[in-house]
Write a structure and sequence with these properties.
This protein has helices at about 5-55, 60-80, 85-100, 125-130, 130-140, 145-155, 160-170, 175-185, 185-195, 195-205, 215, 220-225, 235-250, 300-315, 345-355, 360-380, and strands spanning about 105, 115, 255-265, 270-280, 285-290, 325-330, 335-340. The protein is built from 16 helices and seven strands. Strand 1 and strand 2 form a beta hairpin. A five-stranded mixed β-sheet has the order 3-4-5-6-7, sandwiched between helices. Helix 1 (about 5-55) runs antiparallel to helix 2. The chain has two domains: about 5-110 and about 125-215, no CATH class; about 235-380, 3-Layer(aba) Sandwich (Trna Endonuclease, Chain: A, domain 1), CATH 3.40.1350. The chain is globular, with a radius of gyration of 26 Å. By secondary structure, it is α+β, with helices and mostly antiparallel strands.
């Protein structure tokens, strides 16, 4: 009878298999995220080029270009959903104009490339309508960064500075936040003026916060490009808390009317997402609810004020009172609810809001109950 293999050896063999499989999956996720970003960016460059070409039919008239983009925004949004609004299309057009002299595509000869020529303002329709299988993979290689990075770099007017940030972001593996921070701190200008450029570049290339492949795929730009739903980016805990709160507010009576979940808004080049939006019939105002997994911070309050300013300008309709914000923070064994009433016109209205809305401790208790229910469900 053969001797049994020691348990330690079996465990070691299993861990080796597990490590190899996990590494393979991580690598495939990272490659998928990069591939999606590159193809999406290439597609948007081509969209921008086609819009520019279409505008030339109006001989460069600004009113014709605006009408073209406006009509495209409506028709494309109806067919493909979000991500093709007027502002987005103008960004794609600006992206093409900013990078039309640097983008290269395969020439069809081994190892050879050629510039994309647009001097005449017109390209052969046959080239414009080339299939993505033939054109996009080659064009995608010209864009090593995510689309959001290029959107941010459009604010950089100098082509030399843009090229610098693109190269350094790629070399250093910068996230969007890092790129934004470097641009705002004038990293290009500081590096150009520095006597010790090597030292400045070395410090700037350090990566402080990595972005996981699954987080990259959850980026709103990619969700739109792949026509995925926002629910793919929500954690189980966040989903359970939002559902619990939504049910509780609707059960209070006729005061709260449901408006939407995971309502997205865009401020500048940044995307944000509000967990719940209700309308309070007695107060005649929107109630913006944001859930945070962790303790309450001043940054949470600042972000809520951003939401309220946006809602006041873009979501409020004539006759409605100013919106009110509710921040819910769910820590491990604790929950906090805070209303944001500082933006109301006067203290009388703030007092009226507090009288009509559920008190903060009651809302915090609902969050705690949702946490307990989720833990019980996971331990069954």
């Amino acid at each position: 009878m053969a001797a049994k293999e020691p348990v330690a050896t079996k465990d070691r063999n299993y861990l080796e298999v597990f490590d190899d499989v996990a590494e393979l999956l991580e690598a495939s996720r990272a490659a998928s995220a990069k591939s999606i970003n590159a193809l999406m960016t290439a597609a948007y460059w081509l969209v921008g080029r086609r819009i520019f070409e279409g505008e030339q039919q109006g001989k460069g008239r600004a009113d014709y270009g605006a009408q073209l983009v406006q009509r495209l925004a409506g028709d494309l949004s109806a067919r493909f959903g979000r991500g093709f609004g007027r502002a987005n299309l103008f960004q794609m057009r600006a992206f093409f104009l900013a990078y039309r002299d640097t983008v290269q595509t395969a020439s069809g000869q081994s190892g050879g490339v050629k510039k994309v020529r647009t001097a005449s303002g017109q390209l052969a329709r046959q080239e414009v309508r080339m299939t993505s299988a033939r054109l996009l993979p080659d064009l995608a290689r010209a864009f090593p960064l995510p689309w959001s990075h290029y959107v941010r770099m459009l604010a950089v007017k100098s082509p030399l500075a843009r090229a610098f940030y693109e190269a350094e972001a790629f070399r250093g593996g910068w996230t969007y936040r890092q790129l934004d921070r470097q641009i705002q701190s004038q990293f290009y200008e500081r590096a150009a003026l520095s006597k010790n450029k090597v030292s400045v570049l070395a410090k700037g290339s350090k990566v402080e916060d990595d972005l996981a492949p699954e987080d990259a795929i959850k980026n709103p730009f990619i969700l739109e490009f792949l026509d995925l739903k926002d629910e793919y980016s929500e954690s189980d805990l966040e989903e359970a808390l939002v559902q619990k709160l939504e049910t509780f507010l609707l059960e209070l009576g006729g005061a709260f009317a449901f408006v939407g979940r995971q309502r997205r808004l865009r401020v500048g080049d940044e995307w944000y997402k509000v967990d719940l939006v209700f309308f309070h019939r007695e107060l005649r105002c929107l109630v913006i609810i944001d859930l945070k997994l962790g303790k309450f911070t001043h940054a949470d309050a600042g972000q809520m004020h951003l939401y309220l300013n946006y809602a006041r300008e873009h979501w409020r309709v004539k006759g409605e009172n100013p919106p009110v914000g509710l921040i819910l923070c769910a820590e491990k064994d604790h929950a906090v609810a805070r209303y944001a009433l500082e933006g109301l016109p006067n203290k009388v209205m703030a007092a009226e809001y507090r009288t009509a809305l559920p008190d903060e401790e009651t809302l915090a208790e609902q969050v705690r109950q949702a946490q307990v229910a989720l833990v019980r469900r996971r331990t069954r």
